Amino acid sequence: MNWRVWIMSAVRRGNLAVRYKRALAFQYAGNETSVRQEMEDNARKIFLFHVSHNPGYRRFLDEKGFDYSDPEHVAWETIPIITKQDLIRLDPVVDSEVYNYSSSRGSTQKPFRYAASKESALFIWPHHWVLHRIFGVRPYSRGLMLMEYGNDESLKKRLYHRLSNFTVYSAFRMDDTQMHRMYEDIKRRKIRFIYGFSSAVNQFLRYLRDNDLHVELKGIVTTSDNRIGSSYELARRYCGCEVFDQYGAHDGDVFAFECEEHCGLHIMHDVCTIEIIDGHIITTAVQNRAYPFIRYDVGDMARGERLITERCRCGRPLYRLEGLSGRITDYIEDGKGGRVTMMFVGDLLSADFGVDQYQMYEKDGDLYLNVVTRNYTAEELTAKYMSKIEATLKRKVRIVLNEPVHKLPSNKVPAYIKLQ
User: Fold this and answer.
1) What CATH number is attached to the domain comprising 390?
2) Where does residue 250 fall: left (phi above 0), alpha (psi -120 to 50 degrees), or beta otherwise?
3) pLDDT for 97-109, tens place per residue?
4) Is position 368 within any domain?
């Protein structure tokens, strides 16, 4: 374990090395039955804690008319689902358990400040290191981070990233000048991996392709935006490595990651218990004793109707999400008054390596499918895909090529956006 782990452990007031070793062992422990039991037991335990110690959470249950007089025997599926709006309104903090505060905007553009207890706050990087281990990178190896703050980060944040051995760039300033600097930094500093927004990573990989540039990386971790299928082949060709998608929702303590088999996202259930209800990802943060993320609708939609419970070919018994279909807003009104998830477009286009990126947008009542590609004409894409798309949506869709993608104020790229 290198010296940065010990320094950061002192800064964070918790032994990160111990948490990392525990996480390494945890990912292979158990079987389908024991994992299910652990998830149920962990969720029940944190529910009982907040019923006993959190007046704000009891107020929420009272408002819902929920009888918790015998909390140990309530049917789990009857416990009310809690939303971000409920938590903002009630702010149900257990002050004695607060280790720090975090904030999340995600795709809502409304800052959400919430409390975390110590175990909830400290698991994040040890869990990241479990994923890094898959592609042969040790904790605090040199990395390049593509996130929202870039060079505008605070002095405190810059010091934190210096200690973490990250070279940081802005994910929404992806012009040729910045991307060439990134390329040079990877070469000069011998950076071993990239961690960043899926859309920004894909832009950088396309820049390498378009300029016939090659770098040597151990791996690339994508997060925040929807997974972009073309990144996988581009990374193999121009970086000599694999892409590993990672899903994290810090409000709710979700951490899930792709392994070397690329067959879904393994859920680290020592920090969260996941349910899929009507497509919604519902999480219970089983370590957070400061704030009740209990059956919390995190706002993301799952691909598939259930968790994958069978042991993965990699040997991990962890349950898996098949993938994400987007945010709860990534739905399109069809021509019959119903709603269709953008997932069906992803199913068509994600496996097509001639498509670099895509986005559906609606403007003045018309639907457009913007495809970023240098391999197809609009006529070719129309012939290949449009009959299936329009049959599903029951609406006319116009294909446009190589327009700039539309971003949210957080600079994340949604699969579907309705423009004003």
Assistant:
1) 3.30.300.30
2) alpha
3) 999 998 775 544 4
4) yes
